């Protein structure tokens, strides 16, 4: 029995993966002079929004596993962008904060990130952009339990 041809460009997972690749490529074009990845931007922005957060909480907020989060934080710390301070409540926990250089880089990255987001959605009308984001957020929120690293953002 011969199976029907499956056109992968009609499969949601394939289209989502391709859009992710496109989004990363656009971000790199916009932020190339800053030497920052989208994940590093997310970590800097989240630490800025939640100063004094610990690494495990940060991992949940940016939907990364803890080992990848540790690796990103290590690289940012080596660049002098993040500090880790021992928690006064639990000496095993390290609390994260942006350094002045981290704050400066984040402020420089925000316009790049905003331009990247505009470029990603540019093919859609304003109405379609709003509807796309509504549907995308619905899919993410309704499917988050299937993720290997569900996000704590919005909790």
Compact overview of the structure:
The protein has 155 residues and is mainly alpha-helical. It has six helices and two strands. Helix 1 crosses helix 5 and helix 3 (55-62) crosses helix 4.
- Total helical segments: 6
Helix content: 55-70%
Strand order of the largest sheet: 1-2
CATH uppermost class: Mainly Alpha
The ordered string of helix (H) and strand (E) elements is: HHHHEEHH
**Roughly how many Å apart are the termini?**
49 Å
pLDDT average, as an integer? 92
Question: How many individual domains?
Answer: 1
Percentage of residues in strands:
5-15%
C-alpha-based Rg, rounded: 18 Å
CATH topology name, in short, is Arc Repressor Mutant, subunit A
Please count the beta strands (DSSP E, at least 2 residues each).
2
By CATH, the superfamily comes out as Winged helix-like DNA-binding domain superfamily/Winged helix DNA-binding domain
Helical/strand content category = mainly alpha
Shape by Cα distribution: globular
Tell me about the largest β-sheet.
Answer: 2 strands, antiparallel
**Low-confidence regions:** none
CATH architecture: Orthogonal Bundle
Topology:
Elements: H1 12-31, H2 38-49, H3 55-62, H4 66-78, E1 82-86, E2 94-98, H5 100-121, H6 126-143
Antiparallel strand pairs: 1-2
Helix pairs in contact: 1-5, 2-5, 3-4
């Amino acid at each position: 029995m011969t199976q029907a041809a499956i056109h992968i460009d009609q499969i949601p997972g394939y289209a989502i993966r391709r859009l992710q690749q496109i989004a990363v490529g656009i971000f790199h074009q916009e932020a190339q002079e800053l030497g920052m990845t989208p994940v590093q931007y997310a970590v800097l922005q989240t630490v800025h929004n939640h100063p004094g957060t610990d690494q495990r909480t940060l991992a949940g907020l940016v939907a990364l596993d803890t080992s990848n989060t540790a690796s990103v934080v290590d690289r940012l710390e080596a660049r002098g962008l993040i500090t880790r301070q021992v928690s006064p409540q639990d000496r095993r926990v390290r609390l994260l904060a942006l350094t002045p250089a981290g704050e400066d880089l984040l402020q420089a990255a925000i316009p790049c990130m905003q331009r990247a987001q505009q470029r990603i959605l540019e093919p859609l009308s304003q109405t379609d952009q709003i509807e796309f984001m509504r549907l995308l957020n619905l899919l993410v929120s309704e499917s988050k339990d299937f993720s290997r690293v569900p996000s704590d953002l919005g909790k």
